[in-house]
Automatic annotation (TrEMBL):
Domain of life: Bacteria
The protein's name in its UniProt record: Uncharacterized protein
Keywords: Membrane, Transmembrane, Transmembrane helix
Biased composition (Low complexity): 45-58
Organism, scientific name: Roseinatronobacter monicus
Keyword Transmembrane assigned: yes
Length: 95
């Protein structure tokens, strides 16, 4: 089996454009990869970074009798009211 009649000058001319395109594509990919790696390794300067926002409690007004302390987990803690406060301020009529 013999190869088809090849004209090397003609094939060189036909393949010139695609080969240049592939070389440009690889060059662009290598440049983008280098830029990405440099950005990842260097990071951003501390002065350009905004401070993190404070998380705000979105639970609203605390329930009556709730207590917050240094070990507050965010869950409302109910405190039993004093029995002296539960007494009826008006004495019953008939005494």
């Amino acid at each position: 089996m013999t190869p088809p009649d090849t004209n090397l000058k003609k094939q060189k001319k036909r393949h010139k454009g695609p080969l240049i395109g592939m070389a440009l594509g690889v060059t662009v990919a290598v440049l983008l990869l280098g830029w990405f790696i440099s950005q990842t390794m260097m990071g951003t300067p501390e002065a350009d970074q905004a401070p993190p926002e404070q998380a705000q409690d979105a639970t609203g007004i605390p329930a009556e009798g709730s207590v917050s302390g240094p070990d507050d987990t965010g869950a409302p803690q109910i405190e039993e009211p004093d029995p002296a406060l539960e007494e009826d301020p008006v004495p019953p009529a008939g005494d």
